[in-house]
User: What shape does this take?
Amino acid sequence: MSTDRDPRIESESAADLSTELAMGGQAVIEGVMMRSPHRVAVAVRKPNGEIAVRTFPYTPLAKRKKWIGQPVIRGAVGLVESLKIGIGALNWSAEQAAPEEEAAKPKSKAKDRLTLAGTMLLATVIALALFLYFPLWVGRTAVGSHGSELSAAGQIGLNIVAGAVRVLILLGYMWAISFWKDIHRVFQYHGSEHKTIFAFEKGDELSADRVLKHTRFHPRCGTSFLLIVALSAIIFFAIVDSIVTAVWGDYPSVLARFAVHLPLVPLVAGISYEILKFSAKHTENRLVKVAIQPGLWLQKITTQEPDPAMCEVAVTALRTALRNGESPESADAQPVPEKDQVLQHPTE
Assistant: This one.
């Protein structure tokens, strides 16, 4: 299998390209989404064994508008972009991975929207209870502040305890869902994504057999980013709450605290992005190695060893994302006349 690449990035080394966070991906249902500096590609294994590929040109806003490319801002905006692309990739992968008889059933858009709205509402309520109210309750109990105002020092203690509880809830949640068969397969595809990126960075052949030989633990993983965000939030909001308390006094309610914290979340995400970017450039530094180790440990849960067929899907996604043309140039690729440029690849 050849490793032809987009001529626009031929002058850059694969390692440098990836270090700049221009190359990356995401596991989806029965497949992988890959992003290059110029394209997005999603490859999914269909029930009949074929690989369906969706690809489209895409240049991040940070590359199109200079001011968005500034430190911190680029991370916050990039997170929103990634969420938008990722949700679209997940929805498309679900359609492709569904059995043909199920996909052929007529769908009610109104019913689907109502179901989605109900699911999102329930998820929001659960998320607020688990990640907002419960950790704060535990924190206030730990510092003995129920019914009394907190000092600046008390705010620091509260944030440390509440933040630690949130991290434990996040770890417990990821560990629990890893036993669910469908999620386990997603984590396997996550492993195949990492292995493929590593093969690309090392200049190895982009084939399933070669990709399998690489590690599934990658320092730039989104899982590591989540952990960095969680830990950064503890420090950041401890400082913010100390300042707020010193100037205006303790928060009158949990909702008031939430109203102050929510607008600052993009700033925390932007700072966390810069930390991740710095660590990706200095992985040989001893201190950096120690700092990124928790993220790599967490990947023992969120990535699992894939099989060759999964690596084939990840390779297809990456090779497609690297191409300059409007569609993959493959001898076995048969275009399907759809607007989103879906291609079918028979299993080798």
